[in-house]
Amino acid sequence: MKTSKHAVKKKHSLRIIALFVLVILVAAGVLLYKNLNGLLSDALLKSFDATPVADVYELKFENLRLNFWKGNIRVFNVSLVPREKPLNDYPYINSSFRLTTHEIELESVEIRTLLKLNKLVLKKILIVRPEILVTLAGEKHIMLPFRDSTSVVSAEKNGSKKSIAAFLLSEFELVDASFHVTNAGQQREYNIRNFNISVSDLAVGHQPGQYLTSFQKVKLAIGTFDGDVRRGAISHLAFKDFNIGVDSLAFQLSLDTLTYQFHDFNINLDDLDIQTDDSLFHIAMKSFDLSYQSKNIRVKQISFKPKVSHEVLQKKFRFQHTEFSGSVGTLELRQVNFDSILYGQKLFIDEIALDSVSASIFKDKTKPIDSARRPDYQGQTVSAIRMPIRIKRVNLTNVQLENTERKPDSTYAKVNISKGALELKNVTNLSAKEGLVMKADAYINGKVRFDATLNFSYQTPGFTFQGEVKKFDLPDLNSLIQSYTP
Prior knowledge:
The protein contains six helices and 21 strands. By secondary structure, the protein is an alpha+beta fold. A hairpin with a 4-residue loop joins β2 (63-67) and β3 (72-82). The longest helix is centred in the N-terminal third of the chain and has 48 residues, at 2-49. The chain is elongated and about 95 Å long. The termini are far apart.
């Protein structure tokens, strides 16, 4: 009996000891975890402060959580904001940004390297729903300092600040960001919602006077873009569902130059809406798709239409002025040489095809003709384009044209061209032996079919003309003849 009581007491003592040891271990674990979090927080800040960016921007966060086994760090209530007074003077910096977010996740961090060397080595950065304010100024917007710039007045000795020799990252994701961009000098303001960017195999290098950056793949998406422009030809710009994908991108950024190389890219957007600065015209586009590898651009439902009457538009002009408006169902640019555009500022296209073209022309002939102005022929109009161009062929199908004139007696005359097809060949301002050839086939007021061929010379103003009017009944043109005759 005594042995049994002794055994019970012994077990009870062991439980108390085990519980006490467990409490000590838990307390020690908590203290160690908090101490480790503090060390990691300090190491993260030191890692950032060792870069030139820290001269201009200040990194702050309130809390940090570590998953030691996975090497993941979650940082909460993060802000990256411009310093009130930069640590060094960078007179060329004229713009800035301010980022705040609830959480940033750093995945597969080399914890030992971070604690020992204050160097951040990891595989992935994830930033969710940040708010980013961007303030732009100057002609070239510079937000970051450049290493060893002669334009920098440093208050520190050489070697006091480490540069980013190389920074490697397997993945970077920015999810559901919102941007507010202001440019006081140009009086522009933009709001961007649902901004997402995904980058794989990111490499960033910092050499004297330039940043070197490369990506394996980049995907960028914008849910909505809304911008107000108070100076320039456009007063309002908006679009939705903008997407761009780039394969194997590398670029070098210096104070005054950006150079880049890539393997492939694709761009598409929906519901483009543009208001002109005078609020007189509205430009819209349903969708836009571009493929670099396919060398094609496809656009759907484009329109350019006035928001006011002809009378309001004509008030701006003293002499006779022709107004144009219209829409296009589909526009395709085939075999576009994008390299010539990007690297040589030259436009080389095999074919431009437009379908379901509807156009309106209006002229007020109660106004005098400008005797000092001589209209150019199409050959000279193309030759006057500054950018070198060569378009082999332009095709327009299903063309509808309405021409309206206000006659000198203030009455109106109108003619409709329907079921039209138009072809242009050899559109170029480069040296060409052959001229600009234009072929048309259409119906006048839906009754009289005609075809015409015009050849415009690029060397001298003028053209040759050949045409044929098919058989028709003269009464079919009575309304047209009556509207154009006194």
